[in-house]
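debug: dumping io for the single-chain case to check the tokenizer round-trip. Nothing else runs in this session.
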Amino acid sequence: QVRLVESGGGLVQPGGSLRLSCAASGSIFDIRAMGWYRQALGKGRELVAIIKRGENTNYADSAKGRFTVSRDIAKNTVYLQMNSLKPEDTAVYYCNADLKSSIVRIYMNYWGQGTQVTVSS
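debug: decoded output
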């Protein structure tokens, strides 16, 4: 079985920084991409940032210049460094992975349980 476990959320003041981490564990054969989505109260889930094989990255316009996605391939872990946080960044942040497990040898999408980020003074 594959699990994604996020950490690093919390309460931060506007202008502050947070670093989210997400570790994938289990019988992982190959990871094609990992990234972050978020869902604010009353809104749909949206892409924040994703990093693909070859270190190709994509960012939402709202994240460009403030957030940085990176990963540690050896640890099957993805990070999201968030700087200059704004109240509108408040949301539950979900880790996502497009990977192939050792048991089910096809690429599938997996989600973490989510971590709350609140930006408020």
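debug: round-trip ok. The chain has no helices and eleven strands.
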